[in-house]
TrEMBL record, chain A:
It comes from Gasterosteus aculeatus aculeatus. InterPro entries: CHCH (IPR010625), CHCHD4 (IPR039289). This is Coiled-coil-helix-coiled-coil-helix domain containing 4b. Residues 1-41, 102-156 are annotated as: Disordered. PANTHER family: COILED-COIL-HELIX-COILED-COIL-HELIX DOMAIN CONTAINING 4 (PTHR21622). GO terms for cellular component: mitochondrial intermembrane space.
From TrEMBL, chain B:
One of its GO terms (molecular function) is FAD binding. PANTHER family: APOPTOSIS-INDUCING FACTOR 1 (PTHR43557), APOPTOSIS-INDUCING FACTOR 1, MITOCHONDRIAL (PTHR43557:SF4). It comes from Gasterosteus aculeatus aculeatus. GO terms for biological process: apoptotic process; mitochondrial respiratory chain complex assembly; positive regulation of programmed cell death. Keywords: Acetylation, Apoptosis, Cytoplasm, DNA-binding, FAD, Flavoprotein, Isopeptide bond, Membrane, Mitochondrion, Mitochondrion inner membrane, NAD, Nucleus, Oxidoreductase, Phosphoprotein, Transit peptide, Transmembrane, Transmembrane helix, Ubl conjugation. This is Apoptosis-inducing factor 1, mitochondrial. Residues 113-126 have a biased composition (Pro residues). It is found in: Cytoplasm, Perinuclear region; Mitochondrion inner membrane; Mitochondrion intermembrane space; Nucleus. The keyword Phosphoprotein applies. Its cofactor is FAD.
């Protein structure tokens, strides 16, 4: 049984599980999938890659950002049967670049991440936890990956 | 030979007309002379004046004189030009050839960041185009065999090109990498052309080839570090100097396309956003701190809970997943040197530490640093954050008091407070807001291990008194007390004196508090030092730079983070001092700096943990003066930040081993000294803040992973009749 109490301008309601068992009658405004103001995920409605997606961490903006973008774009638009098989050169270049910055792109983590990864960013992203986390409604990841809890030890 | 032809072509029509006139006049004159009285028939020549022979004669004289004059002028010009040309050629041949060989270096470096310039087709092209004007200009020019072969092309762009590239500099313009010989010839040709043009525009800027390039490139220039300048540059400068006298500035100003003032969270988020959206962007961050950008929340939370004794050096903390990370957003290798920014092939982010921006020239699009360096920009972000406020009574209290007071904001403040906390017996925190409460809890935890006394005093009735509704604030205060903090509420500081190596805080109600060290957490003063020189508007209600919904102060100046008083299209004008806002606004500013034109729409959130039992996340306007509706469920031991961490893996709370056992009994029933019966009923729930019946703020109290729903409700901005129904959306009873 829910109880209500007023303390001045503040109202306090206590509810039991049963009170909240029935579905809510509150109406929410329908979402516009093409709302230009909304924050977007990894892939924009137009099909393009959103390089500014928090899920990418700093991959697209770091010293190897250009190589990453080339490789990932190639992969994204690849129409091969084995997607990305025509992009080996790009990935090689990217890997080469990343090896030059071991601090930013720790090599041992990449292998781990690759196994965990199930999304498109498989060969490249280190931020697997973020990517999968970003897709769910994880609280702290709301706006950014630079919050302490959502990042792996090093962002790139 | 060609010249003659062209000259003739020009003069021919003129000559023809005049000769016709002459002849006709002569004829007429002759005729008329012979037959004076013969009436002149109607068929007059249009050019011949009707009239007598004398006028005709005059006319003949005039025309004749003109012809002769024209011929003389033409002759003189040709002679003069060829003389000038000869002189030029002599001068050039006397110049050392080595200037050509230096050239290849520059074009390669400046070519990659090629920005299309209206006056400039790519360097190799000019060959043909330069030659063209020779023909089409129809001017007598020095002869040059090669000229004939060239096709006739539109002269304008080329002419403009030529005008720009003055003789001495012109040579470099042509030299393509490795093609030295050809450059040589091209050089001559260009010189030739410039000689020809009646008025070689006084070359005040003998700048090298890609004239527009240096604007972007000279990032690196002498200003920052002459030593680091590429080998080609000094050569170029030598060339240009030997050529025309260009007023070389003593203080060479550098330039960056994107300038970010301030090196905090907002600035870093903007840098990342710019780099993601503008490939190869060059971003320069200028900060007066001595370290690269870092995140602030751990300074008052996780870093205090770390087991590592060297944490003040490493500045590393443990995240939810057990993995450690540094407070620095990126390690130093991520950034490039400011000197190299101009030449970096794919651009990058450079951080200039230890430099304060003292003056901003909005009209000239440049700033001045405290070491007198000037940096010009295309687009600028002001993310200067703020400076901790201090109590006036402390400021006036003198040196002895000030040196025992910490204004907590930066890394060094954390380091010094950590040290202090290990060496003193008593610390007093003045301020009951986020920072004060978090530090109190952090230090309170330390106090259990040592005999440190931690006191927190504030004017409100309870912790977070300005944020939480009273009943919740009181509940929170009890929890903070459990963390080992001595709370002195409704405390207004009257004076602070230093006595016998201790500080004595006198309160207005007569209470006296003796302590060793004070931490003042009484708010943040937004840093608007640049407003004056930049002529930017400062908001009188909220402080900070006033910007529009797109975070713009001026057309090429944006402001983000703590210093921005922006227009939130849903919630109205506000200024927010939270980490997530810095990230969101920084990122938005970066997007807008690269052309997005998006307003502030994605609502930022904030969070706070006060010990193991109290954790909440909030979004929107959360002001305790607003009417609130709180919907609570009975708390179980599971509804704590700690439990949330382990389960969902999203919390940032880190717990030490000792807490694990301590938390369970505490959460469910906390005997309260004040005897409020609802004590344990605020275990978890949702609190709605209303303004004109619309929900403008939501706190998720010990309820996690529901922020998107909260965000949606705020975004909708609807009037809900029954907020209990809205609360159902959060499933607060579920884990």
């Amino acid at each position: 049984m829910s109880s209500v109490r007023e303390e001045g301008k503040d109202r306090i309601i206590f509810v039991t599980k049963e009170d909240h068992a029935s579905p809510s009658s509150a109406e929410l405004v329908e979402e516009d999938p093409n709302d230009p103001y909304e924050e977007r995920g990894l892939i924009l409605p137009s099909g393009e890659i959103n390089w500014n997606c928090p899920c990418l961490g700093g991959m697209a903006s770091g010293p190897c950002g250009t190589e990453f973008k080339d490789a990932f774009s190639c992969f994204h638009y690849s129409k091969e049967e084995v997607k990305g098989s025509d992009c080996l050169e790009n990935f090689r270049a990217m890997q080469e670049c990343m090896q030059r910055y071991p601090e930013l792109y720790p090599q041992e983590d990449e292998k781990e991440q690759q196994q965990q990864q199930s999304s498109e960013t498989k060969p490249t992203s280190q931020d697997s936890a973020e990517t999968s986390g970003a897709n769910s409604s994880a609280t702290k990841e709301d706006s950014d990956t630079t919050k302490p809890n959502t990042d792996d030890s090093v962002e790139s | 030979m060609l010249k003659c032809r062209t000259v003739w072509r020009t003069l021919a029509p003129l000559a023809r007309t005049s000769s016709t006139v002459c002849r006709q006049n002569a004829r007429r004159a002759g005729l008329n002379n012979g037959r004076l009285p013969a009436c002149v028939p109607a068929a007059h020549m249009s050019t011949a004046p009707a009239g007598g022979g004398r006028e005709n004669q005059l006319y003949v004289l005039l025309v004749g004189a003109t012809c002769v004059g024209g011929a003389i002028y033409a002759y003189r010009t040709v002679k003069g030009d060829s003389q000038r040309y000869q002189d030029r050629i002599d001068e050039i041949s006397s110049r050392p050839l080595k200037t050509f060989t230096e050239e290849p270096a520059t074009p390669t470096q400046s070519e990659p960041p090629a920005a299309p310039s209206p006056a400039e087709p790519s360097p190799p092209a000019p060959d043909a185009e330069i030659l063209a004007p020779i023909e089409t200009a129809d001017l007598p020019s020095a002869d040059e065999p090669a000229v004939e072969a060239s096709p006739q092309e539109a002269a304008e762009p080329a002419a403009a090109l030529i005008v720009e590239e003055e003789p001495p500099a012109a040579e470099p313009a042509e030299a393509r990498p490795g093609v030295v010989a050809e450059g040589h010839i091209q050089g001559y040709l260009v010189t030739l052309v410039t000689t020809i043009l009646p008025e070689p525009s006084p070359p005040s800027e003998p700048t090298p080839a890609e004239l527009t390039e240096p604007v972007a490139d000279s990032e690196s220039p002498a200003a920052e570090s002459a030593a680091a300048a590429k080998p080609a540059e000094p050569q170029l400068e030598a060339v240009t100097e030997s050529g025309d006298a260009s007023p070389a500035s003593h203080k060479v100003s550098s330039h960056t396309p994107y300038l970010l003032i301030g090196g905090g969270t907002a600035s870093f988020a903007a840098a990342r956003s710019i780099r993601a959206r503008d490939p190869g962007a060059r971003v320069l961050i200028v900060t007066d701190e001595l370290v690269p950008p870092y995140m602030r929340p751990p300074l008052s939370k996780e870093l205090w809970f770390s087991d590592d004794p060297s944490v003040t050096e490493t500045l590393r903390f443990k995240q939810w997943n057990g993995k450690e990370r540094s407070i620095y957003f990126q390690p130093p290798s991520f950034y490039i040197n400011a000197e190299e920014l101009g030449s970096a092939e794919n651009g990058g982010v450079a951080v200039l530490t230890g430099k304060k921006v003292v003056h901003m020239d909005v009209r000239g699009n440049k700033i001045k640093l405290d070491d007198d360096t000037e940096i010009s920009y295309d687009k600028c972000l002001i993310a200067t954050g703020g400076v901790p406020r201090n109590l006036q009574v402390i400021e006036r209290a003198g040196e002895e008091v000030m040196k025992r007071t910490t204004l907590f904001r930066k890394v060094e403040d954390f380091k010094s407070l950590d040290k202090v906390s290990r060496n003193v017996k008593s610390i007093t925190i003045i301020g009951g807001g986020f920072l004060g409460s978090e530090l109190a809890c952090a230090l309170g935890r330390r106090s259990t291990e040592s005999d440190l006394e931690v006191i927190q005093m504030y004017p409100e009735k309870g912790n977070m008194g300005k944020v939480l509704p009273e009943y919740l604030s009181n509940w929170t205060t009890e929890k903070v007390k459990k963390e080992g903090v001595k709370i002195i509420s409704e405390a207004l500081v009257k004076s602070v004196v230093s006595k016998d190596d201790k500080l004595e805080i006198q309160l207005k109600d007569g209470r006296l508090v003796k302590t060793d060290h004070i931490v003042a957490a009484v708010g943040l003063e937004p840093n608007v030092d640049l407003a004056k020189s930049a002529g930017l508007e400062v908001d009188s209600d909220f402080g900070g730079f006033r910007v529009n919904a797109e975070l713009q102060a001026r057309s090429n100046i944006w402001v983000a983070g703590d210093a921005a008083c922006f227009y939130d299209i849903r919630l109205g004008r506000r200024r927010v001092e939270h980490h997530d806002h810095a990230v969101v606004s920084g990122r938005l500013a970066g997007e807008n700096m690269t052309g997005a034109n998006k307003p502030y729409w994605h609502q930022s959130m904030f969070w706070s943990d006060l010990g193991p039992d109290v954790g909440y996340e909030a979004i929107g306007i959360v002001d305790s003066s607003l009417p609130t509706v709180g919907v609570f469920a009975k708390a179980t031991a599971k509804d704590t930040p700690k439990a949330a961490t382990e389960e969902s893996g999203t919390g940032i709370r880190s717990e030490s081993e000792t807490e694990h056992t301590a938390s369970s009994p505490v959460a469910s029933s906390a005997p309260s000294p004040t005897g409020v019966q609802h004590k344990d009923e605020y275990g978890k729930g949702v609190i709605f803040y209303l303004r004109d019946k619309v929900v403008v703020g939501i706190i998720l109290w010990n309820v996690f992973n529901r922020m998107p729903i909260a965000r949606k409700i705020i975004k909708d901005g609807e009037e809900h009749a029954d907020l209990n129904e809205v609360a159902k959306l959060f499933n607060i009873h579920d884990d």
